[in-house]
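Box 4.2: Ligand-aware structure prediction
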Amino acid sequence: MVKLGTGILTSGPGRIDLNTIGDICRQIAILRERGIEIIVVSSGAIGLGMGILGFKARPRALKKLQACAAVGQSKLIETWQHAFEPYGIVVAQILLTHDDLRHRKRFVAVQGTLEHLLTNGVVPVVNENDTVSSEEIAVGDNDMLSAMVASITSSPLLIILSTAPGLIDREGSGEVIPVVESITGEIAEMAGGTTSSTAIGGMVTKIEAARLAGKSGCNLIIGHGHEKDVLLRAVLEGGVGTVFVASKLPMESKKRWLAFFQRPLGTIQVDEGAREALVHKGRSLLASGVKGCTGEFAARDIVNLAGPGGEVFARGQICFSSREVHQIHGKSSHALRTEFPGRKRLEVVHRNSLVLL
Ligand code: GLU
């Protein structure tokens, strides 16, 4: 999979960089000939739309951003289509929001469509569906979106091409770090926000993307999109930018969906004994270990679990509503049985619907 940032695809608001896009298509065509399936996540819709609609700086109002995205996206997909034509490659436009991926049925539908396109030799070109995306339903940035798509398709490699040559060791050598085996606090601190007028990601979201990709068993490379044959070298040779090495023990697909595709509606505070039992003994969460909760949620919604110090350590699908949790916390299962005589399950969060973060 390859994700291309606005900074690489455009040379300023509204100016698409045809040379770069053409060169990326050439490299993708070579990889495809070798039997490597490629998905493109392409930013640039808002940046292009800004130019076409005459904005000099990124507008703040949502409706203006969405108008830019609507205008820019059609230009963007047309550009990809033309650029792939000389190689006889067909492209497909896939526009997603976070909301599409949160619902299991829609998630599975997207997964099926992508698989079908790939087996038919099509190159899917994915972007956020910015025109209908409000804050509540948006992924928000394409670094994260590309990691989500990598996770959905169980891709082995995600290459994020932007104007950053990799993760720079700012405190130390001042050079690009070639390999990151695990994302420590120190690594996360090396990331700083973006300063470009059209882009919104920066290194912070790339590190977050690397975290998600890693837990999905996908290596992630951050490289500069203008380097010669960057894509070919990243896939076939290595030695490009920074490689974030995937976890050797990736989460299974359903747990990934639970951990990374959900927006928790509340937090359950648990005591130390319950935290211990969940983290080290693989137990379910019982009402006796619950201290309280925040947020409003219904039974079957997704919630975070936080330990005594407030640190979130797990996420899961809850069997009680927030109103019920206020009523039952601290109580024994025996007491619950009298309060909810009809219920088969009295665990607050069952261990099969729980993932440690
Ligand atoms: N979806 C946005 C666009 O196409 C880009 C978001 C991003 O680059 O993170 O303009």
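In the box above, the bound molecule is glutamic acid. Residues 193-200 have pLDDT under 50 and may be disordered.
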